[in-house]
């Protein structure tokens, strides 16, 4: 659900997760470790995100990290 405050649109956590294709735990982990330095809250303390925040979250969700796994001995 989009919330409008002073003409600007904000998304709640569940909407951001749905639109970015990630889980709540992932979003909050990224916020906690600083991958996403975004933190707006309403008067209840619920997180709010802008469209720009959503774009940043989507781009982070698309990153693929490939680890070099040693081959098993034969």
Quick synopsis:
The chain has 74 residues and is an alpha+beta fold. The chain has three helices and four strands; from the N terminus they run E-E-H-H-E-E-H.
SSE map:
Elements: E1 2-5, E2 8-12, H1 13-20, H2 24-33, E3 40-41, E4 47-49, H3 51-61
Antiparallel strand pairs: 1-2, 2-4, 3-4
Describe the structure.
This protein has helices at residues 13-20, 24-33, 51-61, and strands at residues 2-5, 8-12, 40-41, 47-49. The chain has one domain: Multidrug-efflux Transporter Regulator, Chain: A, Domain 2, CATH 1.10.1660.10. The model has no long low-confidence stretch (mean pLDDT 90). The protein has 74 residues and is of the alpha+beta class. The protein has a four-stranded antiparallel sheet with strand order 1-2-4-3. A hairpin with a 5-residue loop joins strand 3 (40-41) and strand 4. It is built from three helices and four strands, in the order E-E-H-H-E-E-H.
Q: N- to C-terminal separation?
A: 55 Å
* Second rung of CATH, namely the architecture: Orthogonal Bundle
Q: Taking strands numbered 1, 2, ... along the chain, how are they ordered across the largest sheet?
A: 1-2-4-3
Rg calc: 16 Å
Mean pLDDT: 90
How many distinct beta strands?
Answer: 4
Oligomer: single chain
Major beta sheet, specifics?
A: 4 strands, antiparallel
Number of helices: 3
Class computed from helices, strands and strand pairing: alpha+beta
Strand content of the residues, in percent? 15-25%
Low-pLDDT residue intervals, each spanning 5 or more residues: none
| Number of structural domains | 1
- CATH top level class name: Mainly Alpha
In CATH terms, what is the fold-level topology?
Multidrug-efflux Transporter Regulator, Chain: A, Domain 2
Shape field: elongated
Order of helices and strands: EEHHEEH
- Overall helicity: 25-40%
């Amino acid at each position: 659900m989009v919330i409008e405050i002073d003409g600007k649109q904000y998304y709640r956590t569940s909407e951001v997760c749905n639109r970015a294709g990630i889980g709540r735990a992932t979003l909050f982990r990224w916020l906690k470790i600083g991958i996403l330095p975004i933190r707006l809250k309403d008067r209840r303390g619920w997180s709010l995100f802008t469209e720009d925040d959503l774009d940043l979250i989507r781009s982070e969700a698309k990153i693929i990290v490939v680890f070099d796994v040693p081959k098993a001995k034969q």
